[in-house]
Write a structure and sequence with these properties.
Radius of gyration: 29 Å
Distance between the termini: 30 Å
Helix content: 25-40%
CATH topology of the largest domain: Spore Coat Polysaccharide Biosynthesis Protein SpsA, Chain A
Structural class: alpha/beta
Strand content: 15-25%
CATH class of the largest domain: Alpha Beta
Shape: elongated
């Protein structure tokens, strides 16, 4: 319940669209109730305008009041530029009243604010009836509809009430799958299935809000209301259980639909867009702005870029200032032949404000047996991949060399603390502030390496680091998605002379902090004193996991180094993960140039290394 109340605080903007099958009258009404949303309005209005439903069949109903920013100015600019595109616009701006009585902040919801919002929504509902609209689309200003097909898709369903499922920076969305007897939100397994789109379709649910399309021609629509007293009166007349819940527009609306036999549904058939999470009364505008930064970064991850906004709003978009956080440097490893990954990551760095240097990866496609031997590389005796039981690939060699050369640069340039990123990662929300928190906690500790992203491989005890809230002593882990390395740590890794006993980099690191289970491998490296921690929770994760659509592994999909028997009588390696191998791995002189590659997005290893989410 508290979540719902706060959400409405943020929005104070709902849009009622009216849609129609005849050109003479509108088909959809949009109810915009705007308050202090200047930071999101350029995107919100741009994405409303990019909807592919015929604008001459859309009427707009717009109200703006109680704002202390320039929301009204932006709305007026939009109406001057785009208002004539629509069937009609009914608007009213109150720029004198800036606060509600008894409110503690713009994110507070005193009863007077609820009553005002409910009165406006009731007015919009009646307006839709008066103009004979076929549909009314209630759309809150915290919604960013990135799919132009949203209205077309929803109206084609021909359902009494349907909501487009929206993503947020977490698990919050605009529907419930469960509701308690006293009208509180109840998380269910089905919610997760729908939200993560593990199943795709249209589903009946007990609650939808924030973006809701209502068919005004449906018989039960005349009983729909946001007003608590009207709902109670209707239920009393029908001898139904009388609503005894709070004065809350979205709960009352859901209960009026339930009492009238009007089903509520949510559709996840398209990736419709995003919404902001509700804030608490004690929160600030800066936290809402940061949410928008997180959502814009998610757009780049999901869509490749932030969808464009209207030209005349461009000067209202301000990206965060770039910084290295508290690192001496940040490197991103990227293959030159993967420019699309580099461009995408650079867009994300722009959105979240990270100053990052592109580091050209060593490409496994450009390696062959002769080049590898000229580099003085030899392989760890007895190594084979513990899951696929194969020798290293040229892609894994290139991946290791990429990290190795950064370690060399750290030493050459005397960089004290460096963040190394691969090029197919997704940052968790509030990355910069969370990274700063971790660095502050480690400031007085002696350390060499901190994982920011990893795959934990063993269910083993990882105790908290004394005096910290977000660091654990790291156990056996895979992936080098992102890690912090110190000058001291880089020196230790180079001193181990890993090119003389080469194994994949995400096997080498656990050996160096002495948490690798394969003791025969570990024993080759006498000094294993790397001091390693992991951020908890992790600060980023891969964009794709093994088997998912879009998953590409440049390490797995590359030429293997051939396994050569040292004598005719030696046995071949067994398919046992703990088997100790005596055989040596050698390069096959007949390896063909151009048949291997390097994965610099993340060390996308075998199925066993990346089969589940963190």
């Amino acid at each position: 319940m508290r979540v719902v109340l706060v959400l409405l605080v943020i929005c104070a903007l709902s849009v009622g669209f009216a849609l129609d099958l005849e050109y003479e009258k509108p088909t959809v009404l949009i109810t915009l109730l705007v308050r202090n949303k200047a930071h999101i309005l350029p995107l919100f209005l741009s994405y409303v305008e990019q909807l592919d439903y015929p604008k001459k069949r859309i009427a707009i109903w717009l109200r703006c009041d109680h704002s202390s920013d320039n929301s009204a100015v932006l709305l007026q600019q939009w109406l001057r530029k785009s208002g004539n595109l629509y069937h009609s616009v009914d608007y009213d701006f109150d720029q004198k009243t800036q606060r509600y009585q008894n409110e503690t902040s713009v994110y507070d919801w005193p009863e007077s604010r609820f009553k005002h919002l409910i009165a406006l929504k009731e007015e919009a509902l009646q307006y839709a009836r008066d103009i004979w609209a076929d549909y009314i689309f209630f759309l809150d200003a915290d919604v960013l509809l990135t799919s132009p097909q949203t209205l077309t898709s929803l109206t084609r369903l021909q359902l009494p009430i349907v909501a487009p499922m929206l993503f947020s920076e977490g698990l919050y969305s605009n529907f419930w799958c469960g509701m308690t007897e006293d009208y509180y939100y109840q998380r269910t397994d089905e919610y997760m299935e729908i939200y993560h789109r593990r199943k795709v379709g249209v589903y009946e649910v007990p609650m939808v809000h924030t973006a809701v399309l209502v068919d005004m021609n449906y018989a039960g629509a005349r009983y729909l209301t946001f007003d608590r007293q009207r709902l109670i009166q209707m239920q009393s007349e029908q001898q139904l259980r009388v609503y005894d819940g709070p004065v809350d527009d979205i709960i009352v609306f859901a209960m009026s639909a339930n009492s009238s036999g009007v089903p509520l549904r949510v559709s996840n058939e398209l990736a419709f867009g995003y919404l902001m999470q509700p804030l608490e009364p004690s929160d600030t505008l800066e936290q809402d702005v940061q949410q928008l930064i997180n959502i814009r970064a998610n757009m780049v991850n999901d869509l490749g870029q932030v969808p464009p906004i209207l030209d005349y709003f461009q000067n209202h978009i301000h990206l965060p200032e770039k910084s290295k956080v508290n690192f001496d440097h940040i490197f991103m490893i990227n293959l030159l032949r993967r420019p699309e990954r580099r461009e995408k990551m650079e867009r994300i760095f722009n959105e979240i404000g990270l100053d990052v240097e592109h580091f050209p990866a060593v490409d496994g496609k450009e390696l062959n047996a002769q080049l590898v031997q000229q580099m003085g590389i030899s392989f760890l005796p007895g190594y084979e991949d513990p899951y696929h039981h194969r020798p290293m690939t040229m892609g894994e060699i290139g991946c290791f060399l990429s990290h190795y050369r950064i370690w060399q640069q750290i030493v050459e340039r005397q960089l004290q603390q460096v963040l190394i990123l691969e090029d197919d990662i997704r940052f968790k929300p509030y990355f910069k502030s969370n990274a700063l928190r971790v660095l502050e906690q480690v400031e007085k500790l002696d350390y060499d390496l901190i994982y920011f992203g990893r795959k934990r491989l063993k269910e083993e005890n990882e105790p908290w680091v004394d005096g910290t809230d977000n660091l654990v002593h790291v156990g056996y882990s895979y992936w080098t998605l992102a890690y912090v390395i110190t000058l001291q740590g880089a020196n230790k890794l180079l001193a181990a002379k890993p090119l003389e006993n080469l194994i994949p980099v995400d096997e080498f690191l656990p050996i160096m902090f002495d948490r690798h289970p394969q003791k025969d491998w570990s024993s080759v490296f006498e000094t294993r004193n790397l001091i390693a921690f992991s951020a908890a929770p992790l600060l980023l994760y891969p964009t794709h996991y093994t088997g998912e659509s879009g998953y590409i592994s440049d390490t797995e999909d590359s030429q293997q180094v051939a396994f050569v028997e040292t004598t005719a009588d030696e046995p071949q390696p067994k398919s046992d993960r703990q088997q100790i191998f005596a055989n040596s791995l050698q390069l096959d002189q007949d390896l063909k140039l151009g048949e291997s590659s390097h994965n610099n997005a993340l060390p996308q290893v075998s199925m066993g290394k990346s089969h589940q989410e963190l």
